[in-house]
C-alpha cells in the first residue's frame, strides 16, 4: 500500500505525524481490512501454484517454447550451484548472538506447522515489535533493541508479554545465609506477575492470575488528582493487536516487577520495497509501495511497464532504530 509524506491524515491509513519518526494513530485491524480489499485472494494465498500451470503461464507470457524454458531451467541450476559454492567459501565473522539467531532461522524458515490450528491465516497482518533494555541499565541505553519480535494481528498483548524475556523476572528474592546449599525453586516471575503496557493513553494490565494487581491504578489516580487527561484501563489478555490504535515508530511503555520499565516500539506493519517519483499512478510524490502493490499498479500481466514513472529500491533508514 502506498504511503505519503505530506498528505492530510486519513483514517486507518498510516501517515506521518513527524517525518521519518512516527505515524499518526491508526487502527491496525481496519488497516488490514483496507489492505485485503485492494488485493486479490491469490496475491496473499499460501497455496503454491502448480508447476505445470506456472510453466504454461510463463511460456505464454514471454512467448517462448517449452524446450527453451527447459534450457533456461538447466542453466539457472548450474549458476545456482556455483553461487552456493562461492557462498560456502566465505567466512563471516559474527558475534555469538547473531550466530544464535542465524541458527534459529535455519531451524524455522520454511517449516510448516504440525496442525492447521498453528497456521497463520491468509491475509494476516504481521507487526514488528522492538523491546528495549530496561532504563536501569545505563550501558545499554544506546544499543540495539533487547528483543525484536514478529506478532500477528490475532495475537494479544498478553502473548507479547509472555514472549518478553528480562533478567528482572529471573531474580531470586530472599536471604539464604543459613541455607546456602539449598537452591531456590522460585523466581520473581512466579511471584510478581503484575505488569502493564501503556499505549495511547490506555493501561493494559495483566489480570490473568488471582495474584495479579492493577499496578497502574496509582498513576491513574494521581493523574486525576492533578488535572491531567484521564487514562483508561483494559486487560491485556482481552486485547488483540488488530484492536489497537497505535503510532508506528512511537515509544510506548512496558512495566513489570514494580519498576522495571522497557520502551516498546512498533516499527513495521507492512513491507515497503519501492519508492517512486514522477508517478502518474501515485497519490503523492514521492510515494512508497510494498512489492505486490507496486507490481500490480505499475506493470501489466505480461510484465510490461505502464505509464511514466521512476522507481528506486527503498530501504527504511529507521528499520533498526
UniProtKB/TrEMBL annotation:
Any one GO cellular component localisation term in the record: nucleus
Main location: nucleus
A molecular function GO annotation: core promoter sequence-specific DNA binding
GO biological process, any: snRNA transcription by RNA polymerase III
Keyword DNA-binding: yes
Keywords on record: DNA-binding, Nucleus, Transcription, Transcription regulation
Location in or out of the cell: Nucleus
InterPro entries: snRNA-activating_su3
Subunit structure: Part of the SNAPc complex composed of 5 subunits: SNAPC1, SNAPC2, SNAPC3, SNAPC4 and SNAPC5. SNAPC3 interacts with SNAPC1.
Similarity field: Belongs to the SNAPC3/SRD2 family.
Function of the molecule: Part of the SNAPc complex required for the transcription of both RNA polymerase II and III small-nuclear RNA genes. Binds to the proximal sequence element (PSE), a non-TATA-box basal promoter element common to these 2 types of genes. Recruits TBP and BRF2 to the U6 snRNA TATA box.
Name of the featured protein: snRNA-activating protein complex subunit 3
Gene source species: Muraenolepis orangiensis
